[in-house]
């Protein structure tokens, strides 16, 4: 019995050593900390570990042998988390001159739009038409939407940015803003929540003004090899239609 036990133990040790050598990296499921923005449903459901962005990133990392560890922070803090090396990867990044790190190929696109109440009959055909209006943008909109947008909102009667997505919808419906600048799918998701909420403001007919091209975002990595592997696997799952299938689950 003792001999059999020793043989069995040696076999277990041998298998363990073989796995350690054959599996990538220094662990069977290496953790990758990824910073995701909050208040971004249906792209990110903070704390629920799901959403379009979360599932796309998780799928790629799992296929590479990694475990996704989501870190949920306000959009404005994502850059700080990355630059302080509190996370391995930052989401919704756009290359900037002199920015440290390695940027992936685009992994998601947001449809940012300007939204007004249909009853107001506000005409918006170009960014310059925002002049003189009260506009509320999403947090860091003036950073993400480019110099033309930044110049346009500098001529607004009032301009603010907020991370409170539901608050933007409510502000529009109670007449506290003439225009809100939002990702269309996030706006529509918040409308569904608002319709069933105890808030006095309820969804009303709106006009969608498409003043912006799609905002294409990348991931920002500290590790160049991981970035390269991510890009290759992202291309592979895109060929298989996996990101599109994930988006359809959320009505995108």
Total helices: the number is: 9
When the domains are counted, the total is: 2
Instruction: Report mean pLDDT, rounded to a whole number.
Output: 89
Sketch the topology as an H/E string, one letter per element: HEHEHEEEEEHHEHEHEEHH
Q: What is the class of the largest domain in the CATH system? A: Alpha Beta
Look at the structure and name the CATH superfamily of the largest domain: Periplasmic binding protein-like II
The count of DSSP E runs of length 2 or more, i.e. the number of strands, is 11
How much helix is in the residues? 25-40%
Largest sheet: 6 strands, mixed
Write a structural description.
This protein has 252 residues and is an alpha/beta fold. The chain has 2 domains: 28-109 and 215-249, D-Maltodextrin-Binding Protein, domain 2; 112-209, Periplasmic binding protein-like II (D-Maltodextrin-Binding Protein, domain 2), CATH 3.40.190. It contains 9 helices and 11 strands. The chain has helices at 2-22, 52-63, 78-83, 141-144, 147-153, 165-173, 184-195, 224-239, 242-249; strands at residues 30-37, 66-73, 89-93, 102-103, 108-110, 112-117, 134-138, 158-162, 179-183, 206-209, 215-221. Helix 6 (165-173) crosses helix 7 (184-195). The chain starts with a helix and ends with a helix. The relative contact order is 0.17.
Task: Name its key features.
alpha/beta; D-Maltodextrin-Binding Protein, domain 2; 2 domains; five-stranded mixed sheet; globular; disordered N terminus
